[in-house]
Design a protein that fits this description.
heterodimer, A: Rossmann fold, six-stranded mixed β-sheet, four-stranded antiparallel β-sheet, 8 helices, B: mainly alpha, MetI-like fold, 10 helices, 0% strand
Chain lengths: 261, 273
């Protein structure tokens, strides 16, 4: 049996913004094992999105080290070790669904036949068959976000970073996409780091929920989620689900109440 | 999963009926304008023919002088088209350079915006001195200079006002600089470019005709208008103006048509059914 390898490893990550000397992240230490689904949750200003951006090397920490697949984050980004989904779908208007999904594949210089085969697989994975040649404006918000997920997973990265991907969607769509995301996670075996401000979403999806406190952003606690896999509609009615939601909520309230404003 | 509404489920016959109905007000206004020109102004309001000749007289002049007008139209069209192509190409190239080397762009953009306010047409007599009065190049250069600034400023805006998250997505996938240009900035700038090209198409025709006024080939459209008016042949002058307008509209229409093909992904291209 092999030791489960860390896909993300953060040691002493600190981020200070020069403007105003705000400390967004203060001494963050976190290891994410392969196949985990980690949610970062906390009140706004707790630095959860900044932490995700540090992992993706879209912003650089002022101190500390971020490793992805055992490599420094900048190297991992250049090696295309992760896929990313933002709160907005960030689809390119001039590209069809298929061409949007293929964007990372083009950057990786996959040949056309290989690209087309993968596009077909991804379209099926996110259940958008028949919409391949639609343009983004012809899709609903939920469908656009599926395209963004397909694009992020198109080249089978080991790590999927998601920054409040369903935050702008209505509750019904969000719950349906939560279920789909779990199915995709199980099918692809990828590791997910997921930023959200929804407690129930974090508990429903994750193997561990990382609760963060604001100003400066710190890890206030980590709640392991021992709900049975695979999860489904019934999970949300499980008494254990409510216990865990309560646990996360109380942890969140304690950090908000405890921080001197 | 929400589905997309089926695109226009109206049959071809229904579409034609609907097309006629939506165009009807515009057609009526056009017809009313022609009636005014032909009868209301000369007969009821007594507008003299040197102020505005009767429509039928203008059309007669158009028919009688069709050979001269055809030659004139071709000469001036070449000047306008040459200016449009030259000015827009130079502007697009300059916009790409300024967008790629931002410090250079930041240093020059204030002057480009100021230059946009220069009445370039005022240089028409000067370009005649530079290139020779009878040379078509003096008109091509004026038309090109008129097209240059709006195309440059708009294209540069299109290239640089890409949403930051779109750029961040490229960074996340370690896209090289050329890919960010080719796959993101250039396509994102196309709606801006075509808006500018439509303006430029009209400006190019203005530049060519006004360039002619300052001494063009005696066969050019601008000189035809001038000499017809000088000889009190107002109906011929108006006929030449109609020809100039048709060329301007054709240039604009060609750009608009190209836009519909190239930028068909843009939300503005969606059908209004």
């Amino acid at each position: 049996m092999s030791v489960s390898r860390s896909v993300v490893s953060l040691a002493g990550v600190t981020k200070t913004f020069a403007a105003g000397g705000v400390t967004a992240l203060d001494d963050i230490n976190l290891d994410v094992a392969q196949g985990e689904f980690i949610s970062l949750i906390g009140p706004s200003g707790c630095g959860k999105s900044t932490l995700l951006r540090v992992i993706g090397d879209l912003t650089q920490p002022s101190a500390g080290v971020a490793l992805v697949n055992g490599k420094p984050a900048p190297r991992a980004r250049r090696d295309r070790d992760y896929g990313i989904v933002f709160q907005a779908a960030v689809l390119y208007d001039w590209r069809t669904v298929a061409k949007n999904i293929a964007l990372p594949l083009e950057l990786l210089k996959w040949d056309k036949a290989k690209r087309n085969a993968r596009i077909a697989e991804m379209v099926e994975l996110v259940e958008l068959t028949g919409f391949e040649s639609h343009y983004p404006w012809q899709l609903s918000g939920g469908m656009q976000q599926r395209v963004a997920i397909a694009r992020a997973l198109s080249f089978s990265p080991a790590l999927l970073l998601m920054d409040e991907p369903f935050g702008a969607l209505d509750e019904m769509t969000r719950e349906r996409l939560n279920l789909e995301l779990l199915r995709i996670w199980a099918e692809t075996g990828s590791t997910v780091v997921f930023v959200t401000h929804s407690i129930s979403e974090a508990v429903f999806l994750s193997t561990r929920v990382v609760v963060m406190s604001p100003r400066p952003g710190r890890i206030a606690g980590v709640v392991p989620i021992d709900l049975q896999q695979p999860r489904g509609v019934a999970t949300r009615e499980d008494p254990r689900f409510f216990e865990l939601v309560t646990e996360v909520r109380e942890l969140l309230h304690s950090v908000e109440g405890g921080s001197p404003e | 999963m929400s589905s997309v509404a089926a695109p226009g489920s109206v049959g071809p016959a229904g579409r034609i009926t609907r097309g006629v109905r939506s165009w009807l007000p515009a057609i009526l206004v056009f017809g009313f304008g022609l009636v005014c020109w032909q009868w209301l102004l000369p007969d009821v309001l007594g507008v003299k023919s040197y102020l505005l000749p009767r429509l039928s007289d203008v059309l007669n002049a158009l028919w009688d002088s069709r050979e001269e007008l055809k030659t004139a139209a071709w000469i001036t069209f070449k000047e306008a088209f040459g200016g449009l192509v030259l000015g827009s190409t130079a502007a697009i190239a300059a916009a790409l350079v300024l967008a790629r080397w931002r410090p250079l762009g930041n240093a020059l953009v204030p002057y480009l915006i100021a230059a946009n306010a220069i009445p370039v047409i005022a240089f028409a007599p000067i370009t005649n001195a530079w290139f020779g009065t009878l040379s078509p190049w003096s008109k091509v250069v004026i038309a090109a200079a008129l097209c240059f600034f709006p195309v440059l400023v708009n294209t540069l805006r299109g290239l640089t006002s890409v949403h930051p998250s779109s750029i961040e997505l490229m960074h996340a996938y370690a896209a090289p600089e050329w890919a960010i240009f080719w796959k993101l900035r250039i396509p994102a700038s196309l709606p801006f470019l075509f808006t500018a090209l439509k303006v430029a198409a009209v400006l190019a025709m203005i530049g060519a005709v006004v360039g002619d006024y300052f001494g063009g080939s005696t066969e050019s459209l601008g000189v035809q208008i001038q000499s017809a008016v000088a000889l009190s042949r107002y109906e011929l002058g108006w006929a030449a103006i109609i020809v100039a307008s048709l060329i301007g509209m054709a240039l604009y229409g060609a750009v608009a048509l190209a836009e519909r093909f190239v930028v068909r992904w843009h939300p503005s291209a969606r059908s209004v059914d």
